[in-house]
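Quick question: what would this complex look like in 3D?
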Amino acid sequence: MHTKRRKVVAAAATVATAVLLLAGCSGSGGGTGGATGSPDSGDLNFVYMGDADQQKAFNALFAEFNKEYPDIKLKAVGIPSGNWATFSTTVATRLAGGQKIDIIQVATEGQRLFASKGILEDLQPFIDQDKEVVDDYWNDISPNLKKFNEEYAAGPDGETVFIPGGFNTMVMYLNTSVFDKAGVPIPENGNWTWDEFIAAGKQIKEKTGAYITGAGPGYFTDVMPWLTTNGASTFNADWTEPTYNSPEAVESAEFARSLVELGLAPKPGGQFDGNTAFKQGKLASLNGGRWPVLGVRDMKMVDDTVIVNWPTKTENGSPVGWDAWNITKNSQNKQAAWTFIKFLMSKEAGEYFAQIGGTIVPARVSVANSPAFTDNAPEGTVRLSEAMDYATPIPSIDQGAEAQKVIEEAWGTIIAGQGEAQKTLDAAQSKLESLVGE
Amino acid sequence: MSSETVAVRRPGALLRRRRTEAAGWLFVSPAVLLFLVFVAGPFVFAIALAFLKWDLLTPAEFVGLENFAKLFSDPLLPRVLINTFVFALASIVTHLVFGLLLALAVNQVISRAIGYFARVAIFFPFLISWAAVALLWKYVLDPTFGYVAQYAAMIGIDLPNFFADPAWALPAIIFIDLWHTLGFTFIIMLAGLQTVPSELIEAARTDGATSWQIFWNVTLPLMSPTMFFATIITFIGAFQIFDPIQIITKGGPQDSTTTIIMYLYEKGFQAFDMGYAAAVALLVFVIIMGVTVLQFVGRRKWVHES
């Protein structure tokens, strides 16, 4: 009996100890205790999202940095997470595990989450310290990018915690051979309407058997382009209320479904190699931001491809997501981290990264319009940066990963013909409302 | 006579005993250490976590039994549990039936070379990583470009959209899981089959028993301990299914393939609700333990203990 009681007491004590230990869980990315350090030396840990190909380009960029600052030991870790919601989760887990990270490259999807947790340093003192450098940067980037950074990615007290970097908008890469074969003209000035898109798709299908576009549930790549070109979005302008079941959103979803029903887009629900289908003339377009250019180059199709804007119902539209850099509060080398951020802001770094195969649109307009970005790229590449003028920041609430799942799940259900648009988006809307209310 | 007296009389014996004990502890210490670090430690950590609200980035907050109470009011949890049990039961039945049939077939093969080839061929998919298997089937079952859809269309069959149709997504995952892991059950069954004494089979045959009677009255009862082991292993594995679902359907369409571990992952690493995720993890532990105990209790009724 005594032994049994002792065992129970011991087990309770163990659990209690663990509770006490856990109660001390402080989210290691936060807190204070960081140090300023030297601007020219020290160890820096930088995490960014990138698959094996992207890591090659990033590593070349980092090597350039180290040529200039040999005493700053930059340890860059690329996380091939595939999407920004997963990346944010991975970084948060690493921070919770006690990993020291000085700079996190965060995209729009995770910026509000990281900014709201109070784990990022106020960058204003650094900006004041290098006003000339920063002003030069602000004057060369799209005013929208600066505005979006202030509106959507400020710290808890409105402080600047991010410096925006490159971005991506959504466009269509057209296979000109397929269009020529079908006798369909490439949209003049890169603009076309939904009706013209359908007409082109029918003619291409009839003459070549190719699909005009792919159909998927990707939040950034499918949902938002069809919504924004009809004046809709998933959330209102300040992301406080979902608007996923607005009449315009329902109309967009029905239109996306009609592409599958008409046989103009392959049925969703599996996986196929879009690049191969594009190369073989089975798919007339690739949809994306800057990233499809790597595949187009590999397939040696740069001269057979033209970039045009997304087809419109009411107005030009595109989502935009941008990278941003910060300094964590517990960084031990904040000045060295700022040196690295200044390097990333420089025109030289932007040009170098664009040349070696970066998969983002450079933040500096001068770089985005320069041969460094437009050479060895399809005609119409400047439309990627021009889209920033009318683009909508991809709505990304704190519960971003959950919201993305709800949005993609509903869209996937509709385009697969498994649910009626209005009903499905109504259900998704109420789920999003509950997420915003959390 | 006290032990001290014995110790005084036989000091060498006590020393030898202590040395033997120390050597024993030394031998088991790597396993004990691994168990403490990777099993016992995380288990205690999970119990403690279930009493907290923690988002990984900000300090944890003690919330008492709130996370456990949430288990009973979570509207999605019953659906998730049903999906998981359906998957687990289907997995047990299909693995046991097909694993046994294949083992019987291979055991009958007279040619040794063909027998070895069949064993390797059946076991081989089990050696491929889940990520590769999931992607492979996602390509194969693509409703437009996939091989299956294209060949079916050639003979005029219009197949369902397996991963996009809520009615077909879970059966498709069950089939893929069977294709991937059947080899393991098959090997267990084959090993069990080869332990059935051939003299009993011969004796039954001499007594005039038919092949079916031999299988039903001799082979199957003697195989029951192996089948019992396979049932437990398959249930535990099936209840923890995660990889193919995460890669192929991400729990959709319409939550039709969200299983309990998938849900646990979503709560912990997408909703950043580590406390509730830990409560779900403990629920998984209780269910697996409960079902395993029930299986052990039920074994008396059908497992032949010789």
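Answer marked as accepted. The CA atoms of residues 57 and 358 of chain A lie 6 Å apart.
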